[in-house]
Amino acid sequence: MKGQEWYQADNVAEEYDDKRFSRGGRLIDRREKQAVLDALGPVDDRSILEVACGTGRFTVMLAERGADIVGLDISGPMLQQGRQKAAAADVDDHVEFMRGDAARLPFPDDHFDAVLAMRFFHLADTPAAFLAEMRRVAKEQVVFDTFNRFSTRSTYNWALPMGSRLYSRWEVDRLLDGAGLELTEATHDWVLPYGFYRKIPNELAASFRSIDTVIGGTPLGKKIASVSYWNTHV
After folding, report:
1. Domain that holds residue 192
2. Beta strands in 40-181 (DSSP E)
């Protein structure tokens, strides 16, 4: 997986949320969390696995809403950040953080009601194998996101330190077919790339986000959106 060593550094874990979700990045955080909630629906008493949970942004949010959730990540420092968030939110009894490999999930078949992976597939070197594992342990639902090939992200992806794996709709359809998953809903967003929002103040970002949303609501906007959220069922 791309960036595996980088993600496991202590300083990266400690600074991760501040660097990505401060300033205009707050809009990104709110939108991603809403996308997860929209896809999963009510989570009270549902068992959920979050693959590549990182610092536990989504893990803790879902636990606060009553989910029984396991957050799995390969980075010990990232998991420690998640544990601190869970303790601060007083949801320790709903959350378990585990270090593990997404290519070999340590759970039996059909173990979770739903499996979630956000900000993961752009780093995946073998996406079909990862998605097949997620489907294996899911009884009902698999939710994930991708960065899109024909989008603004493609114009600067080459300049990123680790780059990103970009997906066309055809590639996603092929992944779903290979994993035996049926698409329930696809949502496409963010005409302007994430990196742009992170560089500007939150107040200014809100104005650009309004423009972004208007363009994104058009047929052209949906075609050039940089991010897609995929809600699938088993």
Report:
1. 4-233
2. 47-51, 68-73, 95-99, 112-117, 138-148, 166-167
